[in-house]
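Input for the complex:
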Amino acid sequence: MIKVGIIGGTGYTGVELLRILADHPLVEITVITSRGEAGTAVDDMFPSLRGRVDLCFVAPDDAALQECDVVFSATPNGVAMTYARRLLDADVRLIDVAADFRLKDPATWQRWYGMEHQCPDLLSEAVYGLPELNREEIKKARLVANPGCYPTSICLGLLPLLENGLVATDDIVTDAKSGVSGAGRNAKMGNLFSEVADSIKAYGVPAHRHRPEINQTLSQIAAEPITITFVPHLVPMVRGIHATIYASPQAPVGDIQAIYEARYSDEPFVDVLPANSHPDTRSVRGSNTCRIAVHHPGQEGRIIVLSVIDNLVKGAAGQAVQNMNLMFDMEEKTGLAGLPLMP
Amino acid sequence: MIKVGIIGGTGYTGVELLRILADHPLVEITVITSRGEAGTAVDDMFPSLRGRVDLCFVAPDDAALQECDVVFSATPNGVAMTYARRLLDADVRLIDVAADFRLKDPATWQRWYGMEHQCPDLLSEAVYGLPELNREEIKKARLVANPGCYPTSICLGLLPLLENGLVATDDIVTDAKSGVSGAGRNAKMGNLFSEVADSIKAYGVPAHRHRPEINQTLSQIAAEPITITFVPHLVPMVRGIHATIYASPQAPVGDIQAIYEARYSDEPFVDVLPANSHPDTRSVRGSNTCRIAVHHPGQEGRIIVLSVIDNLVKGAAGQAVQNMNLMFDMEEKTGLAGLPLMP
Amino acid sequence: MIKVGIIGGTGYTGVELLRILADHPLVEITVITSRGEAGTAVDDMFPSLRGRVDLCFVAPDDAALQECDVVFSATPNGVAMTYARRLLDADVRLIDVAADFRLKDPATWQRWYGMEHQCPDLLSEAVYGLPELNREEIKKARLVANPGCYPTSICLGLLPLLENGLVATDDIVTDAKSGVSGAGRNAKMGNLFSEVADSIKAYGVPAHRHRPEINQTLSQIAAEPITITFVPHLVPMVRGIHATIYASPQAPVGDIQAIYEARYSDEPFVDVLPANSHPDTRSVRGSNTCRIAVHHPGQEGRIIVLSVIDNLVKGAAGQAVQNMNLMFDMEEKTGLAGLPLMP
Amino acid sequence: MIKVGIIGGTGYTGVELLRILADHPLVEITVITSRGEAGTAVDDMFPSLRGRVDLCFVAPDDAALQECDVVFSATPNGVAMTYARRLLDADVRLIDVAADFRLKDPATWQRWYGMEHQCPDLLSEAVYGLPELNREEIKKARLVANPGCYPTSICLGLLPLLENGLVATDDIVTDAKSGVSGAGRNAKMGNLFSEVADSIKAYGVPAHRHRPEINQTLSQIAAEPITITFVPHLVPMVRGIHATIYASPQAPVGDIQAIYEARYSDEPFVDVLPANSHPDTRSVRGSNTCRIAVHHPGQEGRIIVLSVIDNLVKGAAGQAVQNMNLMFDMEEKTGLAGLPLMP
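Predicted:
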């Protein structure tokens, strides 16, 4: 059994990791930390885990963490980088579900996250944990930067177009919609039920931290610098991201449906829907699947890609477990076979 | 008192007309028809109107309708055109809240609505009831085509840009999000609570009936043919439309915030928010206001316009009453002063 | 024009008072206080009020408040009692929308609210502002304790039964359901969208602060001590309270529908539905109406009363304005005629 | 592998059976029928099952069904009784997830379901599939009547009280709240999102079909006739039932928490929460667990039991699979270990 530790287990990513890992046949959760809830039984805070997770939160504890085979960091941004060096030195692999290791350039990171990076030397070693792009590197990684939820949905939606050079790289618009759980389990007035329900709004139009991450990944895929237009929206639902992507073909693009199906035919967690489909986010609720539909109305004008994920699974905890499976040479789908909850 | 009739009062537009008109100081509702509910008391079907609307639905009845000063048709598409000629001949003005008179070209109408138009000669007479664009014509109109909900939010969002020739007319993307009431009060499985709640999806990507209407109006504004990219989405909320509009400046555009504020400074129902705002749909819930925010991050790249309305008010019944006020030379805001319900 | 002040205008009761008072033809809001938001424009915080409320929040300021004719206190519990004496001494009438003056016994108040009462002598003067019970006293009051939302819905539901001695006073069960706005506009984790949506739960089963208030009022009505069983529930909706009341007839009760209709026939804000009705909370959303249905299945066993209100209107701000109208000898419905927003 | 057939697979119970059975290691779904959707691929209708269920709906077909080991009937009421005799004669076991075999008395059944029962002789053979009550009988059954969702939550909540004779049997009030999926996947106007969202209402106060079923089961448990007061409510959530039960102790009841814990200590799917808990329905969303909290404030007055289930799992498809496991001598939890989806 692989020994797993979780740093910061009281947020939505933390409880989702617990949900998934509690059913994973090859791992054992040995330690889960929380500075504020040390001593609290995990299932007192999360009754949904009663009878299945028999742990208490403990204060952050290097000794216990260093006995793990792998540690997931599900903390706010800026915490994982304070543990990373010591864990790696103790031969513990680290999967950061926050953003500390996602950007390659320390200066860019500092600009967007408002603090100095504490181990910039590890940024180049860290592997960006999008298996559909970097599977082989992930298998060999000590340190994985788990992608953000928006970047996952958008990059999977654009991958076949950019790999094949089919669209103009300077004319991509992505209009993304997220459920409220993406904002985390923090007591913020703006995320109260009465503030968010029965309404929709855009946010972060001038700037959103996922933008440089998206641009970095798309630029890697296209092998040229890309800057997209990106507007996120807050939708009155708990889980789910829906990315609507508008791209302009460079030239006649041929059978775009076939291109998508071919690209993802061997991917266990990307499902290309039949032509003319409109995926809803509930079709992936609770599962690690990304469902994609591609449209090219009249074979002219913009290509429109619809890409949906569960932000807490493929957009966070599920993809982190997928990465762990790869890093420890387990079957990639282990523990991730649960079907979406619909309705 | 102006005598008002309503054809087809059992849908969401019908009940919203009743809500607004019941508080309008200068009108009297004299007849409301419903083929299926003739004889039913209106407030048996809509208890929210108890004590305020003391009418029964009656079968469609030319005599009663022809004694009205104005008739609102809140029926499905294809019904108003069967009444229009007789009402106009009886000197009754007609405001069609459905789509029968929105498109100028009968062939286009037939292609999108799947039936032959029964009075194509009236299409040229009909005035498109967007007061911010056609106020003077509306004042003189006998027949007003009340705009669709998506077109209202999108055209108001783009009006200042297109009137001033500021953006490329061949590169406009509009990603729109609607509450479920926009789908009407019909027993369709796809609009059940359990099908729609806690989820989001795009729909109608290959084709949506509001697209030709949007293109027609934008082309009128810009005085050149425009075809936009338009994708609507279904959001788990009852009311509200949020249009996110992406447009490419043709040249340095100057102080775009000032341009918007100037264009709408005298408009009673368009509110330009301060710079860097993100309107939520609840800020207009139940009111006839359109709130708009305009962004031009870094003064480079695309201009992003956020435009919100209540689809049942400014997107339907409220705008219809605004048009009636104009047609009968009443103060434009009469009966439309109710504040948004927030939260 | 009556000069109105509001203490604590940043919560949901505060913004609802603003919504209602902004449309009230006989009042002028002259001051609105907020310790934390002094200097902020009201419509910056609440864009729904743009163009209609042109005030800034100011720090609590005795001089400004003492120039008002009436002050609404929409603060947390324990604040109004620190202002009451000074306001009354300055001939300013006070309507406390919180709980400081609802209980007649200072010891009971202290036990439930966890602090010592600062002006217990005013408790006997304060009039409990349920117009259907205490209309004449309200008209003469200087100090009105506006009822809680649960007590309003429950007491109106039970009034005809208890006034007529029809049911056993020791066998009343009230199962109540509230929307989330009842929990206020405070950044609490338990009221986050992702904690509350798509779920229901009971809360406060061992003890809820509205219980002594309900018991006190029901005991006044019945003229004997009453202790009810009361369980509140949190429902994933923004507004609305639904009280389901179970009472055991003492003897044959006769035509209970007629009894309810007679009791409330002259009440402007209580609507008794026809027999066999099931009111939904949306039928009163945004309005000051309480709708009640009474059932006595088979004329045997328990009487079941269904009572719905909008917790922010008849359960808070609307009832407060109704009380103000009575205190200043205005028509009771002034400013409260808005119809429910449905759907 | 056990061969499973499903009659009527297009409703919410049908798709939930598919979700659970697709992950069940010891069964194989061999046939799924739908009169209206014959020929449609199951995953065309339910994209959440793509890649996991590779079947098409077929027209009802005795031959195919008779080759199964067990058939689940997930049809509307009145259909299973037309298949039952032929299936049993072919040695196929039948689990009816609808109501055809729940009531023992044919006359009562006919009165509540409005049709004549077609195989009243099977009513006595049918075992009521509540494992916590009838486990041994279920193991030997050919025909299981799967309980309704309300009855499951209520009977599990009352079982320890009634088995031990602790409460008055003529003074039980149950106020129950259900998510909208309980109303089924039928195109009914009353279940549209815009009719149900942001609102709550009671329904069926004069009469609800689950009442005789509840009374029958509680009478069996108590070994005396019981008639409860029962009011169901419709809550704007997809899944979940919350039963709030009020019962009057007959005498000092002792440590009621310990009584509940002892009664359910060996039950795999009933979880008694610690004292003073308030279960929310999301804590069981997607799982087969019933969570119960019991309160006795002040050790006086009524006992209050809070009981939550997922109506589609423990209230329908999950309990049906639990029954199948028992009937085929499999470990009771097989295929039912999935954790709740929270948030």
